[in-house]
């Protein structure tokens, strides 16, 4: 197990490239030191086989490398898309916050409107108020006519009372004059009775 683990660590992905290169080198040395043509041909075929395996492994590695590059580009693209999505999400969050603030403001305004509507409902509407004002205006006009009528009557009664007082004063003056005349007459009669006849 320890040997396999070391080979895997040395080999990388476990494709056996390092072992193949060592085998290729050994095969090349054997091919160089081969005595017979058949043995050399056999070693030559083994070297070609090992080379084709190495080329195949290298091609596979290049394909994996290209695939990794494309995957990195794809991941970079996905990363940029994710960044754009995050930026868009931040913008949407900011917009939603604005909408929440606006909704709170609208809700506050509606609550204030409801409170004002409740206060307004306790008061009569404009039509009824105008009717009441019109009725009060008519009543005020009627009372003004009554006041003028009462003032006219009061003025008439004042004049009549003045005439009455003047008449009473004249009557009293006449009565006093009559009393004085009667006293003068009585005094003359009394003086005529007391005077001796010649």
TrEMBL record:
PANTHER family linked to this entry: MAINTENANCE OF KILLER 16 MAK16 PROTEIN-RELATED, THO COMPLEX SUBUNIT 7 HOMOLOG
Intracellular or extracellular location(s): Nucleus
TM ranges: none
InterPro entries: THOC7/Mft1 (IPR008501)
Stated family: Belongs to the THOC7 family.
A single cellular component GO annotation: THO complex part of transcription export complex
UniProt-annotated stretches for the region Disordered: 176-198
Function: Component of the THO subcomplex of the TREX complex which is thought to couple mRNA transcription, processing and nuclear export, and which specifically associates with spliced mRNA and not with unspliced pre-mRNA. Required for efficient export of polyadenylated RNA. Plays a key structural role in the oligomerization of the THO-DDX39B complex.
One Gene Ontology biological process: mRNA export from nucleus
Record's keyword terms, sorted: Coiled coil, Nucleus
Tree of life domain: Eukaryota
Listed name of the protein: THO complex subunit 7-like protein
Organism for this UniProt entry: Camelus dromedarius (Dromedary)
